[in-house]
Design brief:
The complex is a heterodimer. By secondary structure, chain A is of the alpha+beta class. In chain A, about 35% of the residues lie in helices and about 15% in strands. Chain A contains 8 helices and 10 strands. By secondary structure, chain B is of the alpha/beta class. In chain B, helix 7 packs across helix 14, helix 11 runs antiparallel to helix 12 and helix 12 runs antiparallel to helix 14. The longest helix of chain B has 25 residues. Classes of the chains: A alpha+beta, B alpha/beta.
Chain lengths: ~280, ~375
């Protein structure tokens, strides 16, 4: 079964019409679809089969279950149940609200502090919803924050999210997007915490303000991990000298190497951003 | 009010503690179930009598379950077992530890004192024991969100770099209002032997917690002063040497009375303690220096020696904490250490057997410097 065949079956099972394919990579496709009442939606399809099939299925199920339980205007909303396709099951699919706009890869850099703070504030509010459920997103990369056409921001794709109390207490390196990870992602024995998501917001702030993450990934994972553990970076002040003092303080605290010294979760970060509004 | 007193079996301790709260900068008495019984015994006032007496003079009382002192060879069980802090012989399974937490916090509630969640002595911040400690904290804070949590670890634990920081991050996530940090020494020496990395780890951890929580350095005594630079609010000390550094000997019966142990003179100008004979020798051979390092006459008896020790500790804490920034606190303690180190050669000349600055100053100054360098002071 091909991804196209699975996609057709998914659209039929979920009662939507495919408008266009938005993205396809490996075993996963995202399509813009319309419901019978004309509402635009995003159809996400995962093709199963192969050695990583169980992991892909588990990850998708976790993403759908999590999104269904989170109610925040700053987190993408899931609008259907997960459906299994084929017999035996060869694919899975679900619907999410359609988000117009673009992710942070496409929105350019050199933002003003005001614009960057707006982004961070919305992402922090989205994180509040995750952290209240004791869930860590773990992959707040530019591709997973969408600037919508109304100017607000939403967190998407919590496929790597982990429930703190269900996760192992100690683990090996954690998955994520190199360049946009926290020190806890790459420290053996550590596990990402809500404060790790806060670090990643700091990375996103640094990224939109300067065009680069603070600890750049050059293709050598071990080298990147080593520099990230030490948070070896050029300070924001040295990269962009014209920002208000608040900007350096907030970004600096988000990017503190010690997770205990950062804003401890989305709520504390949001409060801090509100206080300098 | 920057000191806390750790419990001992010393006769008359309650009177001493009342005096310390009234006159010597002591804020709290931290009872131990190894020393204070739940019901009064001859020469051992009950925990509730201690609470009443100390509260009456404006102090606070806590009961630290001191579970981190328990080992397979602990035999100081006479008073400890009266508390019924365990439901059976199992003291290692998760279920037993959670039950232990519940029993401890029930004791706190019945005494109307703030809760201190029991902890374990850790050799490393990862692994089953560290996981168990986190679960114990979670349970304690679930029962009482205002409870104090404790981290106790060997010097190796405090020197474990990123692993330690990761565990501290996990504990901070629990948002404890108060944290007690304790170094568990293998060898109960005084002054304690502590490496640069361990001291740096304690300071770094204190700094991290002190952003949101009150930090006490349990059994820290003079060795805990660097942590005051990093943001510790309280420093633990006690009557005898056994409360001036933590070792698991606290749960083991000894035959020594301990009376001789406190016949020592704390010299503020040395940030160090001299034995009685050494102090007398110094006073005889170099009275000017003796006066400079310990103003006034040598305290005449054990209570006076002890109060002078508390006064010196409280004075040093006060000087450090009078500075708002950690950078200025660092400069303050560094100056105290530098001045003490400069005084030591003359002291050793008068009393050659005394431990010198290599024991009393250099390890702590080096740990403090490592912390300061890492923080960019």
């Amino acid at each position: 079964m091909t991804i196209d065949e699975i996609t057709k079956e998914a659209a039929s099972a979920l009662g939507v019409k495919v408008k266009r394919e938005v993205a396809q990579g490996g075993q996963k496709a995202v399509l813009e679809v319309v419901a019978s009442d004309g509402t635009p939606m995003a159809l996400k399809v995962v093709l199963l089969g192969g050695p990583h099939s169980d992991a892909a299925r588990e990850r998708a199920a976790r993403e759908v279950e999590l999104l269904a339980s989170i109610h925040s205007e700053f987190v993408v909303r899931v609008t259907s149940k997960l459906v299994e396709l084929g017999s035996p099951v060869r694919g899975i699919a679900w619907l999410e609200e359609w988000l117009s706009g673009a992710d942070l890869w496409k929105t350019g850099a050199g933002w003003s502090w005001g614009d960057a703070m707006e982004m961070a504030r919305d992402v922090a509010r989205g994180l509040v919803a995750f952290h209240e459920k004791k869930v860590v997103h773990r992959d707040l990369s530019p591709g997973n924050v969408q600037k919508t056409s109304d100017g607000s921001y939403k967190i998407i794709d919590p496929g790597l999210a982990r429930h703190l109390q269900k996760a192992t207490m100690t683990g090996l390196f954690q998955p994520g997007t190199p360049g946009f990870m926290s020190p806890e992602h790459v420290t053996s024995g550590a596990r990402p915490l809500p404060a790790s998501d806060v670090f990643c917001v700091g990375v996103l702030l640094y990224f939109v303000l300067t065009g680069q993450p603070p600890v750049v990934f050059n293709g050598d994972y071990e080298d990147y991990a080593e520099r990230l553990r030490r948070v070896e970076m050029i300070s924001l002040e040295d990269r962009v000298a014209s920002l208000p003092v608040d900007a350096y303080e907030v970004v600096g605290r988000c990017l503190d190497r010690q997770s205990a010294r950062r804003f401890i979760d989305g709520a504390e970060l949001f409060q801090a951003l509100e206080s300098i509004k | 009010m920057t000191l806390v007193l750790h419990d001992s079996g010393r006769v008359g301790k309650l009177k001493w503690a009342e005096t310390a709260v009234q006159n010597c900068g002591v804020k709290r008495l931290i009872l131990s179930p190894f020393e204070t019984p739940p019901v009064g015994m001859p020469r051992r006032p009950s925990a509730s009598d201690c609470v009443k007496a100390i509260n009456a003079v404006g102090g606070e009382v806590l009961l630290d379950p001191t579970t981190h002192a328990l080992t397979s060879v602990s035999n100081k069980t006479g008073i400890y077992d009266m508390w019924q802090l365990w439901s059976g012989n199992d003291r290692t399974s998760d279920a037993a530890l959670i039950d232990h937490v519940q029993r401890c916090l029930a004791c706190h509630a019945s005494l109307s004192v703030s809760s201190v969640v029991p902890t374990l002595a850790l050799v490393h911040p990862t692994g089953d024991m560290a996981s168990a400690v986190l679960k114990m904290m979670e349970e304690g804070l679930r029962i009482n969100p205002s409870a104090t949590v404790s981290i106790a670890g060997t010097p190796g634990f405090w020197n474990s770099g990123g692993y330690l920081d990761a565990m501290v991050g996990e504990v901070a996530q629990l948002r404890p209002k108060e944290v007690v940090l304790t170094v568990v020494h293998d060898s109960p020496t005084y002054p304690v032997a502590l490496g640069v990395g361990s001291l740096h780890g304690i300071c770094r951890t204190t700094h991290s917690f002190s952003i949101r929580s009150l930090v006490t350095i349990g059994y820290g005594d003079l060795a805990g002063l660097p942590a005051a630079v990093a943001g510790a609010t309280y420093l633990g000390t006690g009557w005898d040497l056994t409360q001036r550094r933590f070792s698991q000997e606290l749960s083991i019966e000894t035959t020594s009375g301990g009376g001789g142990a406190v016949r020592r003179y704390t010299h503020e100008g040395l940030v160090a303690v001299l034995k009685e004979k050494e102090a007398q020798q110094l006073a005889q051979l170099n009275p000017g220096l003796s006066q400079q390092l310990l103003p006034g006459k040598l305290p005449p008896d054990i209570p006076a020696m002890w109060q002078a020790h508390l006064a010196t500790l409280a004075g040093a804490m006060g000087s450090i904490q009078a500075n708002a920034s950690r950078r200025d606190r660092y400069k303050c303690l560094r100056a105290l250490y530098d001045s003490a180190a400069a005084n030591f050669p003359s002291v050793i000349q008068a009393t050659p057997l005394a431990k010198d600055h290599k024991d009393w100053i250099e390890p702590f100054r080096a740990g403090l410097d490592a912390y300061a360098a890492a923080e960019g002071f």
